[in-house]
């Protein structure tokens, strides 16, 4: 299964509460923090909603 590396690139200040909750559910709290998730439809949906705030890279499975 493919893995996705998600990095928070923009601040959550001034963003709607719904977007803040999505970013926190991805496991991101600080700018430039990265997390690795499995490539599932639910994770892709969260990334799509916050695409202007996060950076996405595909990573080889370890």
Topology:
Layout: E1 3-8, H1 17-25, E2 34-38, H2 41-49, E3 54-59
Antiparallel strand pairs: 1-2, 1-3
- By DSSP (H or I, 4+ residues per run), the number of helices equals 2
The SSE order reads EHEHE
- The CA-CA distance between the termini, in Å, is 10 Å
- For the secondary structure, the number of strands is 3
Mean pLDDT: 95
Question: What keyword list fits this structure?
Answer:
single chain; 62 residues; alpha+beta; Ribosomal Protein L30, Chain: A
Task: Outline the structure in words.
This protein starts with a strand and ends with a strand. The protein has 62 residues and is α+β, with helices and mostly antiparallel strands. It has a single domain, classed as Ribosomal protein L30/L7 (Ribosomal Protein L30, Chain: A, 2-Layer Sandwich). A three-stranded antiparallel β-sheet has the order 2-1-3, with no helix packed on it. The radius of gyration is 11 Å and the shape is globular. The chain has two helices and three strands, in the order βαβαβ.
Short account of what is shown:
The chain has helices at about 15-25, 40-50; strands at about 5-10, 35-40, 55-60. With about 60 residues, it is an alpha+beta fold.
